[in-house]
Amino acid sequence: DDKEDDDGQEQGGDANGKSKQSRSEKKSRKAMLKLGMKPVTGVTRVAIKKSKNILFVISKP
Question: In this protein, which residues make up the domain named NAC-A/B (predicted)?
Fold first, then answer.
């Protein structure tokens, strides 16, 4: 449930190099966009651990 614009919740990619997003990942990305976060210089990757098995990764915050 990644809530990011260019979130790095990486899943298996196809031949074109684009990853296939699940419905929950799309919803999470949309919700992350609504947070209105601003880029911080020097930060290249952000990881947010929500629970034992849920990890949000933003590769280009």
Answer: 22-61
Q: Using CA atoms, how far apart are residues 61 and 43, in angstroms rounded to an integer?
A: 7
Cβ partners under 8 Å of residue 33, min gap 6: 3, 4, 5
Q: Which DSSP symbol is given to 30?
A: H
48-51 CB contacts, 8 Å cutoff, 24+ apart: 50/1
Beta strands 54-58 and 46-51, pairing class:
antiparallel
pLDDT at 61: 63
Phi, psi of 55 (to 5 degrees): -135, 125
